[in-house]
Recover the amino acids of this structure.
């Protein structure tokens, strides 16, 4: 399912477009995940753990599942 333009943030959309320009094809939600991971890496550096990755992925999936569920029930 695609994210309508009206629901997109400038930061995530910009990262998505830039990555696609350099032939790294990602979706809007994929760009959101990349930003989240990169922010965590900047913050934690070499202290980034497997648990951090698992937590990020779990939270990311939950966020977008809730978004799509809300859109589905509103339709």
């Amino acid at each position: 399912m695609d994210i309508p333009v009206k629901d997109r943030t400038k930061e995530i959309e910009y990262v998505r477009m830039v990555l696609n320009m350099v032939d790294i094809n990602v979706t809007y939600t994929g760009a959101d995940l990349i930003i989240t991971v990169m922010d965590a890496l900047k913050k934690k550096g070499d202290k980034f753990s497997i648990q951090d990755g698992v937590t990020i992925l779990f939270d990311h999936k939950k966020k977008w599942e809730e978004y799509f569920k809300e859109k589905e029930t509103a339709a």
Notes: The longest helix spans residues 50-74. The chain has a mean pLDDT of 96.
